[in-house]
Structures are given as C-alpha cells and as structure tokens.
C-alpha cells in the first residue's frame, strides 16, 4: 500500500521528462506548399526535429502511410555543417530495414541499425539517431534534408525531396540539448525527494 504514493509521485515527476522528447520543432515554419508533389506514400508534407539527452529525432509527415515495399525513405544529415563533406550521415528506412550510414568521401558505410517508428495518427515516420553515433549534438549547426526514392532499397529515382533544394539548418544554439550530466543529477534528486517524502509521511 505504501508504495503507491511513491509510485504516483515518481510518475508525476517523470512525465515531463518523457514528454520532452516529443516537443517537435517544425523545420521551415510555416511550411511552403509541399503536398501533391510526389506519390502520396512518399510525399513529404511537414518536417520536424526533436532532441533529448540521448537521441536526435527526425519526423517526416507524409501524404499517405509509408510503403517500404515501394519506396525508400532517407534523412540526410550534414553534421558538422560544412566541413569535409556536405553530407555526413544518412538515415535509411526501407524494405531491408532501418539503418544509418556514414559518408567516407567515396562510399556510404554502414554504421548501425536505428529505430524508425511509424506514427499512424500523424501519418509520419520518426527516425531516431543516437547522439553518441554522430559525435554529440550542440557542438555545431546541423544541416538536414529529406529525400524519398522510388522502389525498395533504392537511392535513385527521386519521389520527393524537402526542401526542394539545399537543406534546413538547425542552429547549434537552438538545439534544446539536455547535457548528459543533468540525468544523474535529476535521478539523484528524484530518489532523494522520494526518500524525504516517504520519511515524512511514513516514518518507521
Ligand atoms: Ca512533398
Ligand atoms: Ca559536413
């Protein structure tokens, strides 16, 4: 019985931390008309990003539910912006799976599998990028663009691209980066708070 108040308090305290990851920032707001310029399952309409302490999220809202058997969905990242290459990473979602590759100047090289979620409510694809795998965030601006291709596991035959040319720029200072050091401090504070309350309401 006594565990319930503590459990509820923990839920209350943790709720904002969980919610933070879905505070989407729209790229290019307000968006130009982007609907109807490609086959619906590959027609990118609205684009967003979000961050938390461990991941960068990119969200692509489509005109119709994605079809990995017929299209390849790709997010290109220029991070650090400029520098050696104009494109450093790409996040791929298609028939063969969801993974991340890095450009080495000659070829795209597999880095790791990634999580890509289909959100049927928003008709969107959400790509998750572990911050560690791109050398951290907040240390440079990030260029990003979304490009979808005709065919499964294909990188030719563009079906749609947003923006049409160039890229969106996520300013380094605009990234709501939660430093990793905050997490242990947050967890410590949470446990301390629970112990204090427990001692107050349930003195043994
Ligand atoms: Ca479009
Ligand atoms: Ca670069």
Shape: globular
**Straight-line N-to-C gap:** 15 Å
Q: So how many helices?
A: 2
CATH topology of the largest domain: Immunoglobulin-like
* Rg over C-alpha atoms, rounded to the nearest angstrom: 20 Å
Class from helix and strand fractions: alpha+beta
- Give the helix proportion (percent range): 10-25%
Q: Would you kindly provide a written description of the structure presented here, covering whatever features stand out?
A:
This protein is an alpha+beta fold and 204 residues long. It has two domains: 1-21 and 181-204; 24-176, Immunoglobulin-like. The chain has two helices and twelve strands; from the N terminus they run αββββββββββββα. The chain has helices at residues 3-20, 182-201; strands at residues 25-26, 44-51, 55-62, 71-78, 89-94, 97-103, 108-113, 116-119, 124-130, 142-150, 158-162, 168-170. The chain is globular. The two termini are 15 Å apart. 26% of the residues are buried. It binds calcium ion (2 copies).
Secondary-structure blueprint:
Blueprint: H1 3-20, E1 25-26, E2 44-51, E3 55-62, E4 71-78, E5 89-94, E6 97-103, E7 108-113, E8 116-119, E9 124-130, E10 142-150, E11 158-162, E12 168-170, H2 182-201
Antiparallel strand pairs: 1-2, 2-3, 3-9, 4-5, 4-10, 5-6, 6-7, 8-9, 10-11, 10-12
Bound molecules: calcium ion (2 copies).
